[in-house]
């Protein structure tokens, strides 16, 4: 019975109504165990069926959390017959993920896109995922990704999450939420009356309601297990045990009152997560339990037997399993292992067998190790880590146990699980050979760095690199580069700073006769930080050219090393002011990350690309890139959003994102996040004309090796200092920028340096530098800096009393800023233009102005001849959503066909 949930029912029914109208909806229903989530979802199922929706369910099961894509398979199984209609790459990814055939680890984005396409074609559709806190990691990531990309699919996705969750449910954060509270007193009394048929004294009734604290399951279940005497004299003494815990205790007492065979049957059912009744009865027969044992269990209201076994509530399963003796749990798992088909489901068989072992068992451990390999091949790092951890526990020989613990630690770290350090302690107990010891040292260093984003990380990476030098020279060189990158990112200029790490990296083993791009990058950076920028530029250019040439090598298309280092290569291209190379490497990094389904690296790749798009004045494409990155939810994507908001001149948005970044940086000890935030604030304040505030922020940003390495901070500091009347504060930045520009010899660098010299100069020299800056910046893609040069030149001309020349420059600046959407800089140009006596012209309206950033991106792609399916794959949207956007685009542009779209000149 659903009592007291009228507002919640209305919210869910509204989602269904929107889907009937051609929209989609997503909702996360949160609340403690027994608060009524499942009852609310059941009401929604019934409402959806009555409205003509297809309804498909999945549920997380605690024991299934180690099986990659298990929850996703539950939801998608009814649709798999239509998988043949998907593009071949999506078919292949889905098939490998679900174990239908072998292949390379599936591209998780392709899996998500395949699921999105399958759901889109099945609408109107309601997808209900109960107990989502127990989904396996792979399923949770994909389903959350899909939920963030549903658009016009007539699909409603509802996830029920227990608070507090049993596992990390970060994947679902940021989705719309409905949090269930306890029932009010009146509704609680109504529900209690359905559970207790005998008349209740008002005092007793009020005590029961108070003790249940509005939890519907408590109101239904706790009276059922209470002795009759309590109804006469009171319910229970108040205690501090949580309501869900008390409910679970009640289920446990009820289970313990059953006959022995019925209790054992419950333990087997609790240990078997799939609910397969045939498998359960085979396991029961293995234990000599007759089918009649189910009768008292069903009569007690603990579970139901049909084609599937269903527990009354997930708390029944956990209560039964936790209450069972270790011996009974092992007997249950042993029986399940004995009757599980090794050919059909080898991994569950291996898992059950492992849980049945007392002590150690090499055969069981080896079987788990094979399961870990299969899980990794399907892209289930979390599952592989769990299998390897248990395999290490079962391994009798210390040396083999240490090796397996080390492999488990690597898998845990890759999966983002915190237990990696515990496993490293097991591995360190050894014995390990020299190579394994070095790998252990390296993993320790990486965990230390990623955990604190600073501190001892660079030093520990250096120590690992030294240890690896005689054992694995190639890995040693990569680890030296890791340490150098870590030092740049942390921005620590102390003993563990960039210069110290670069000095130490000079001891790296010699590169091979045919150095890899990563080898050239290491050598170029070491030279740069030890001998100076000018000395390092030639080596850095060779490295960047090697990365760029590597793309044309057929063997490099799926090169994981390239994916790993393109993040640093792209930032290095910025350090030599090579805008064309930044665009090329960033595009390649994004493409390789997409092809490999690299959830951890795609957002970083999109960040570099979006920053370069912002600097190029293409704000709409940058916005779409940050939106895609946000949909992955794998790493913070605030950096790209912050820089875009700052250049757009949106003060409130920038300030809000900046505050969030600073809070997160303090929590992680990440100085670079704060430095990057300060750079964005400097851009914002320079745009708004608040130069003292810009100077404070830019000075802070200039303290960062990361910001000076990528050359983002110099020009902001110089402009802010000069406009604040403090040109002496710009001296160091100007000297460094000028020497770097001369060494790089690129239009971008030379243009910035010339503009910066103009700001500190007077008379004819200043004008000559302004003109040089404009001429140089016209020859590169960094449109924002060209516009800013026209602006500061116009401001200078006005202050020289040359109004006519000032108007020309300020008009150009205002037009450029208005076209790209740099609102604060456009307003600054407009103020200056009005000061010359000219009213700034409003920007000429363009047909594309009516399009949203996402619509503009889709229009651009379609105008190149791409199909809806191809555009959807590019933007991680379903073809149906692309078609819906196209209808809106056609309407806004007053056209009727793709051919007409190709004829338009889109910005």
UniProtKB/TrEMBL annotation:
SMART domains: HTH_LUXR (SM00421). PROSITE patterns: HTH_LUXR_1, HTH_LUXR_2. CDD domains: LuxR_C_like. Residues 844-907 form the HTH luxR-type domain. SUPFAM superfamilies: C-terminal effector domain of the bipartite response regulators (SSF46894), P-loop containing nucleoside triphosphate hydrolases (SSF52540), TPR-like (SSF48452). Gene3D superfamilies: P-loop containing nucleotide triphosphate hydrolases, Tetratricopeptide repeat domain, Winged helix-like DNA-binding domain superfamily/Winged helix DNA-binding domain. InterPro entries: AAA_16, P-loop_NTPase, Sig_transdc_resp-reg_C-effctor, TPR-like_helical_dom_sf, Tscrpt_reg_LuxR_C, WH-like_DNA-bd_sf. Keywords: ATP-binding, Nucleotide-binding. GO terms for molecular function: ATP binding. This is ATP-binding protein.
